[in-house]
């Protein structure tokens, strides 16, 4: 389903953290959410999955106001992988991924063959099938990140929100995970710091600064040298790729 954020505001006390944000993601497309530290990316993702309540404005999934969607439906359809996701320590990798099935199961319903198949498929997609029995606490940072992504995939969501999913990942797994996510038939918002990865894998981008959207659109239109200088305070050289119409960014120091 599509995601539409309409003039959304969120505040902690008197501090405005999300200040009148509007953006849309078409069904099955990937939106990259960019912006400096503290610009409101994680806060916006939490609002979209209703972990936080908007102060004003409306968030719609497939045209329906999320405030009117029952909590159980939200839990089944939206998966969020948080920036610093943790989990209980005394559990195995497969137990963590099985948690993704929780919203789909009633209190008395037995674990099904389909649940098993979905969990194993999710583990395989992130390349962690060989680690099913390993304890969570013994995993490396990147392995933990991949297991949390598998848990989100096991939820079989229609909307997937990923908060800096490439944190801790080596370059191969960064490319693998973003390649995987961009091919899923799921509406996706990914908060990212790597502008080149955002240009490679996202259908569109929104750039946040101090809780507001300061640029939005196709990656090659958004990622200009002027914007990178103005928002991130960095001099950059942006080269348009002739092959796929995207762009490549080189940063300059001094
Ligand atoms: N409950 C809160 N009380 C006070 N300030 C808050 C609260 N929640 C978030 N903030 C502030 O709101 C701002 C936006 O935070 P947020 O986590 O959304 O940023 P972000 O864009 O995800 O940053 P990063 O790139 O560092 O992850 C930050 O300055 C943060 O300190
Ligand atoms: Mg964040």
TrEMBL record:
Domain of life: Bacteria
Sorted UniProt keywords: ATP-binding, Nucleotide-binding, Transport
GO MF annotation list: ATP binding; ATP hydrolysis activity
ABC transporter domain location: 3-235
Family the entry assigns: Belongs to the ABC transporter superfamily.
PANTHER family the UniProt entry points to: ABC TRANSPORTER ATP-BINDING PROTEIN (PTHR42794:SF2), HEMIN IMPORT ATP-BINDING PROTEIN HMUV (PTHR42794)
Protein name as catalogued: Iron complex transport system ATP-binding protein
Organism whose genome encodes this protein: Rhizobium lusitanum
Lineage: Bacteria, Pseudomonadati, Pseudomonadota, Alphaproteobacteria, Hyphomicrobiales
């Amino acid at each position: 389903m599509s995601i539409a954020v309409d003039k959304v505001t969120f505040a902690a006390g008197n501090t405005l953290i999300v200040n009148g944000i509007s953006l849309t993601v078409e069904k099955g497309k990937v939106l990259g959410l960019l912006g400096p530290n503290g610009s409101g990316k994680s806060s916006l993702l939490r609002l979209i999955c209703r972990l936080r309540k908007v102060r004003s404005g409306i968030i719609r999934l497939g045209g329906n106001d999320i405030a009117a969607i029952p909590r159980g439906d939200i839990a089944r359809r939206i998966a969020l992988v948080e920036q610093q996701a943790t989990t209980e320590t005394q559990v195995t990798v497969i137990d963590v991924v099985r948690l993704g099935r929780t919203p789909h199961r009633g209190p008395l319903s037995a674990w099904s063959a389909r649940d098993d198949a979905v969990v194993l498929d999710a583990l395989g997609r992130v390349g962690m099938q060989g680690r099913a029995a390993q304890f969570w606490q013994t995993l490396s940072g990147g392995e933990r990140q991949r297991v949390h992504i598998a848990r989100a995939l096991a939820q079989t969501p229609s909307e997937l929100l990923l908060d800096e999913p490439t944190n801790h990942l080596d370059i191969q797994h960064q490319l693998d995970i973003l390649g995987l996510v961009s091919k899923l038939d799921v509406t996706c918002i990914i908060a990212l710091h790597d502008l080149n990865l955002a240009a490679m894998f996202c259908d569109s981008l929104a750039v946040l600064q101090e809780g507001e959207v300061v640029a939005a659109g196709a990656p090659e239109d958004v990622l200009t040298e002027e914007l990178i200088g103005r928002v991130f305070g960095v001099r950059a050289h942006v080269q348009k790729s002739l092959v796929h119409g995207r762009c490549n960014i080189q940063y300059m120091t001094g």
